[in-house]
């Protein structure tokens, strides 16, 4: 009589999270609004859990509003939660330019499972905030000839 020995190998789930960030404008003047769009995707074969995107606004941009397609956005972190295999989610953030500067805004995604391709876990957008154009006719008491 022969006996077989079985070996069980447990395979942990793996995902392929990615993030893409864009802005509606790359040049604004102080006081104008810039709208960022962040899209996170899971191209892995398993559902991703505990998905979160770190996306802190630069100091020269004041937060106005956010609209996540799922989860919540607070304190610079978008808590997406579970992202099914093949699914995407989107966050729209509106901010007001408050100071002149060239600024880079980066979004970085992470989750609980092993990410098979971490190279696409961050994306950045550069926005240049410029001074408002000078208008000599806007000065008090000026007249246009």
UniProtKB/TrEMBL annotation:
InterPro entries recorded: Chlamydia_OmcB, DUF11_rpt, Ig-like_fold, OmcB-like_DUF11
Source taxon at top rank = Bacteria
Domain DUF11, chain residue ranges per copy: 16-127
Chain segments annotated as coiled-coil in the UniProt record: none
Q: What NCBIfam families does its record include? A: B_ant_repeat (TIGR01451)
Q: What is this protein called?
A: DUF11 domain-containing protein
Query: Which species is listed as the source?
Result: Microbispora hainanensis
What broad taxonomic lineage does this protein's source fall under? Bacteria, Bacillati, Actinomycetota, Actinomycetes, Streptosporangiales
């Amino acid at each position: 009589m022969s006996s077989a020995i079985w070996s069980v190998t447990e395979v942990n789930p793996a995902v392929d999270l990615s993030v893409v960030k864009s802005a509606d404008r790359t040049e604004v003047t102080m006081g104008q609004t810039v709208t960022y769009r962040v899209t996170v995707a899971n191209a892995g074969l398993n559902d991703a859990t505990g998905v979160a995107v770190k996306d802190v606004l630069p100091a020269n941009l004041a937060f106005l509003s956010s609209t996540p397609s799922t989860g919540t956005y607070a304190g610079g972190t978008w808590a997406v939660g579970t992202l099914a295999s093949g699914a995407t989610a989107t966050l729209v953030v509106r901010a007001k330019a408050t100071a002149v500067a060239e600024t880079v805004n980066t979004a970085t995604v992470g989750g609980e499972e092993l990410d098979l391709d971490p190279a696409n876990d961050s994306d950045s957008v550069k926005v240049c905030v410029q001074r408002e154009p000078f208008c000599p006719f806007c000065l008090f008491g000026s007249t246009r000839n």
